[in-house]
Amino acid sequence: MTTLQKPPYVYMGGRITEWEHATIHVASEALIRGISVFEGIKSYWRDDNSELAFLALEEHYERLARSALLNQLPFSWTFDEFKKACTSLARRLQTADTDMWLRPTVFAIEGHWGEGTVTDLVITCYQQEKRRPAGLEIGFATWQRPLDTGLPARIKSAANYQMGRLARIEGRRQGFADMIFMNPWGRVAEATGSCVLMARAGVVVTPPCYEGCLESITVNIVEKLCETLEIPFQRRPVDRTELMICDELCLAGTLMELGVVRRLDGRIMPASTPIFDRIADRFWAAVRGRQPHSAVRLSAV
Ligand code: PMP
After folding, report:
1. Taking the mean position of all CA atoms in its chain, how far away is CA 116?
2. Residue 3's pLDDT is what?
3. Which atom from ligand 1 is nearest to the alpha carbon of 218?
């Protein structure tokens, strides 16, 4: 079972506070209706441990602002204020032995049915082992990603993760580490916390956002890495059966990074994954500072 980290400090109410004091009222819309939007941001140490750097901090800030806008949540933080908040917490908690993962969340701490909404930016920050993800065994969820007119997948809101939670519970019972959601048309949407990339006949393919996935920052990076590596990259709808017969399969996301799938719904995938190995090698060379890439935007903590 996973044990949750309880770091000593949290950013809340415009300052760093102790974990025990980072609390939200039981009557807030954040709790009673699950009204919050959030981000997951990774920071990586360079290979020589000379610098810890956030990956794509500005892209995450912009998506958080878009999620808040779509969820009718007041969002008044400038990028500089956001960066200062993330930096102050990460500096407080950083250790040389681990990378970090930050979760900035905008909670509706006051208001009622969207009237009089007051928000707060809360950031929690966790240690992450410095290792590349291992091969994954995953399945297909019976839960679907809903239509854009219901729970829009492009918003990173807490509500979207209720299905993710149910899908993970369903998957755990079957021995799967993660699950892929279909959309209402029976095509591939995304996994519970990452996007789906497949390779077929030398082309990397991923479903576009209108198929029911988050506007992924990692997928945008992969697209640019593919350009550099001269690997064709396409965004187009993907059938479930196409995934079952693809040459290589990979989940992509900030926390997932690039996780190659070894077994899909019982099918053992080909052991050799030359395309995703090349992309992952280039990704890791860039985030660790060995071989910078313009799409891998790092900013010092
Ligand atoms: N889909 C979902 C549901 C996610 O939670 C994530 C992780 N943020 C992703 C896709 C991948 O997005 P990103 O590459 O921006 O982390």
Report:
1. 30
2. 80
3. 14
| 195 CB within 6 A, ligand 1 | yes
The first and second tokens of residue 164, run together, are 């993710």
179 lines ligand 1 (CB under 6 A): no
Instruction: State how far the Cα of 81 lies from the Cα of 84, in Å rounded to an integer.
Output: 5
Which pair of tokens denotes residue 134?
Answer: 């291992």
Rg of the chain, C-alpha, whole Å: 19
CB 206 less than 6 A from any atom of ligand 1: no
Rounded Cα distance between 102 and 88, Å, is: 12
Nearest atom, ligand 1, residue 190 CA:
1
Residue 292: both structure tokens together: 């910078």
Q: Kindly report the pTM of this predicted structure.
A: 0.96
The backbone torsions φ and ψ at residue 8, rounded to the nearest 5 degrees and listed phi first, read -65, -25
Render pLDDT for 99-117 as a digit per residue (tens, 0 to 9). Answer: 999 999 999 999 999 999 9
Confidence of residue 133 (pLDDT cuts 50, 70, 90): confident
User: How many A from CA of 44 to the centre of ligand 1?
Assistant: 18
CA distance 291 to 284: 9
Kindly provide the b/e burial profile for residues 80-109, where b requires at least 16 CB atoms within 10 angstroms of the residue's own CB: eebbebbbbbbeebbeeebbbbbebbbbbb
Residue 89's H or E segment, with its range, is helix 79-93
**Tens-digit pLDDT profile for residues 75-108:** 999 999 999 999 999 999 999 989 999 999 999 9
Place of tokens 């755990």: 172
* Per-residue tokens: 47: 């290979």
Taking the centre of ligand 1 as the mean of its atom positions, its distance from the CA of residue 280, in whole angstroms, is 17
Does residue 1 have a pLDDT over 80? Answer: no
Residue 216, ligand 1, Cβ within 6 A: yes
Provide the pLDDT for residue 101: 97
Collapse the DSSP code of 23 into the 3-class scheme (helix H, G, I; strand E, B; otherwise coil) and give the result: coil
